[in-house]
Write a structure and sequence with these properties.
Helix content: 40-55%
Strand order of the largest sheet: 4-5-7-6
Number of helices: 9
Strand content: 5-15%
Distance between the termini: 31 Å
Shape: elongated
Number of strands: 7
Order of helices and strands: HHEHHEEHHHEEHHEE
Length: 221
């Protein structure tokens, strides 16, 4: 993947922490910048915890930081300026709700470029790029279920090791371009499986109301 795609993967890694994702959502939903105290109160966490996650988001370029005295006073005795955080104007593939159209847009763009560069078909290039992306995203997660959840698939295990994916992150596109998008989903999930060392097998299993991919077999010990 190029540097642009790698930056998006980095953003997903930063947001893969549940609490940090919630904090990012609070900042992104606010019309005005939030202080560490604001975020700590809204997320019901200690101020030090809020500060840690906000600064991680800032380091990743997902939020911007400004300094302002909240008292409105200036000069001696006015106190130190507070750090205020505002969502940066960037597109993040780990968005809420779980529809990741930025991700599939980048995937298809990279696939077209690869097809032109290597003289292969676009469909084959989509499969290769989707699998590579799944490998990159899956390496940041401790298990297949975590990787699937972070990508927005909402995995559901029936107790036998078979996993169905209750959500398609590319739903609107999948309804209009079903073979292409379902093939990309399968390749991406195969990449996630390989990256996490799981021994189950993804396959196409289309059904209404969920993703076209299901995963069969017992999980790795």
């Amino acid at each position: 993947m190029d540097a642009f795609a790698e930056n998006r993967v980095d953003a997903v890694g930063v947001l893969s922490d549940r609490l940090r994702g919630e904090i990012y959502g609070l900042v992104a939903a606010s019309d005005s910048p939030l202080s560490r105290d604001d975020v700590a109160a809204a997320a019901s966490v200690p101020r030090s915890t809020a500060a840690f996650h906000l600064d991680r988001l800032a380091d990743a370029g997902l939020v911007t930081v400004e300094h302002r005295r909240l008292s409105g006073r200036s000069g001696p005795g006015a106190g130190r300026p507070a750090k205020l955080y505002r969502a940066a104007h960037v597109d993040v593939i780990a968005s809420m709700p779980e529809r990741h159209y930025e991700l599939v847009g980048e995937l298809f763009a990279a696939a077209i470029e690869r097809a032109e560069r290597e003289g292969t078909t676009v469909r084959d290039a989509v499969s290769l790029e989707a699998r590579a992306l799944g490998l990159a995203l899956g390496r940041a997660q401790p298990s297949l279920e975590d990787a699937l959840t972070r990508c927005g698939y909402s995995p559901s295990d029936d107790g036998t090791g078979r996993v169905t994916l209750e959500n398609c992150p590319f739903h609107a596109l999948a309804t209009r371009h079903t073979p292409l998008v379902c093939g990309a989903n399968l390749s991406l999930v195969e990449g996630l499986v390989d990256a996490t060392g799981d021994e189950r097998t993804p396959r196409l299993d289309a059904a209404a109301g969920r993703c076209c991919v299901a995963i069969d077999g017992a999980p790795a010990a």
